[in-house]
């Protein structure tokens, strides 16, 4: 099995690249985001997964090992082959894909070409337990550190953990990319007062 390739980028197309490793060119199928980072003549490293069929051997390349591992995991669901798995990663980064599966977010999964409602449901049923442990921290939105801080503050003020979680959920959608903990705490406290 070829785990990764490092070499000069010899060619780039819409869905593949060729890496030159000491005079041998490896043709690698890639997602658009991976291709966007490649530059002709510059050295690049691609984490790879080789798919062997009766009539072909195809290398799929990814920017990092997390993408490659997710590509291999989603293929274990029935009805998901390498092309659909690659489409999943082209539409959803690994963290978002993991979150969608762990939280049974069928709407997000159906944004991927080739996945309908039934396919999304099957993927969730077959993979939810397998990504659940990995995705437990990923289910929270990015910057989830603020959640823990606000939760600890609310519990420290005498609220139950359940009430703290409910208040955080009520204000979470208004939290921006650079959260102000004191403002979030005030909003959570206001939401608790309204909930009484």
From TrEMBL:
Residues 64-141 are annotated as: Domain II. SMART domains: HhH1. GO terms for molecular function: ATP binding; four-way junction DNA binding; four-way junction helicase activity. Keywords: ATP-binding, Cytoplasm, DNA damage, DNA recombination, DNA repair, DNA-binding, Helicase, Hydrolase, Nucleotide-binding. Residues 72-91, 107-126 form the Helix-hairpin-helix DNA-binding motif class domain. SUPFAM superfamilies: DNA helicase RuvA subunit, C-terminal domain, Nucleic acid-binding proteins, RuvA domain 2-like. Residues 143-196 are annotated as: Domain III. It is found in: Cytoplasm. One of its GO terms (biological process) is DNA recombination. Transmembrane segments: none annotated. GO terms for cellular component: cytoplasm; Holliday junction helicase complex; Holliday junction resolvase complex. CDD domains: UBA_RuvA_C (cd14332). Homotetramer. Forms an RuvA(8)-RuvB(12)-Holliday junction (HJ) complex. HJ DNA is sandwiched between 2 RuvA tetramers; dsDNA enters through RuvA and exits via RuvB. An RuvB hexamer assembles on each DNA strand where it exits the tetramer. Each RuvB hexamer is contacted by two RuvA subunits (via domain III) on 2 adjacent RuvB subunits; this complex drives branch migration. In the full resolvosome a probable DNA-RuvA(4)-RuvB(12)-RuvC(2) complex forms which resolves the HJ. HAMAP family: DNA_HJ_migration_RuvA. The RuvA-RuvB-RuvC complex processes Holliday junction (HJ) DNA during genetic recombination and DNA repair, while the RuvA-RuvB complex plays an important role in the rescue of blocked DNA replication forks via replication fork reversal (RFR). RuvA specifically binds to HJ cruciform DNA, conferring on it an open structure. The RuvB hexamer acts as an ATP-dependent pump, pulling dsDNA into and through the RuvAB complex. HJ branch migration allows RuvC to scan DNA until it finds its consensus sequence, where it cleaves and resolves the cruciform DNA. Belongs to the RuvA family. Has three domains with a flexible linker between the domains II and III and assumes an 'L' shape. Domain III is highly mobile and contacts RuvB. This is Holliday junction branch migration complex subunit RuvA.
């Amino acid at each position: 099995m070829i785990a990764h390739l490092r070499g000069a980028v010899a060619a780039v197309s819409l869905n593949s690249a060729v890496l030159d490793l000491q005079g041998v060119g490896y043709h690698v199928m890639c997602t658009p985001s991976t291709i966007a980072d490649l530059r002709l003549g510059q050295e690049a490293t691609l984490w790879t997964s080789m798919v062997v069929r009766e009539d072909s051997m195809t290398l799929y390349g990814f920017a990092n090992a997390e993408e490659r591992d997710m590509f291999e995991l989603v293929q274990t669901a029935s009805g998901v082959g390498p092309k659909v798995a690659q489409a999943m990663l082209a539409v959803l980064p690994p963290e978002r894909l993991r979150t969608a599966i762990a939280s049974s977010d069928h709407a997000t999964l159906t944004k991927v070409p080739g996945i309908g409602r039934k396919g999304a449901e099957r993927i969730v049923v077959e993979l939810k337990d397998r990504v659940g442990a990995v995705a437990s921290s990923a289910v929270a939105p990015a910057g989830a550190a603020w959640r823990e801080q606000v939760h600890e503050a609310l519990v420290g003020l005498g609220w139950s953990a359940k009430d703290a979680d409910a208040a955080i959920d009520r204000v979470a959608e208004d939290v921006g990319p650079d959260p102000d903990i004191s403002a979030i705490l005030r909003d959570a406290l206001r939401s608790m007062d309204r909930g009484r």
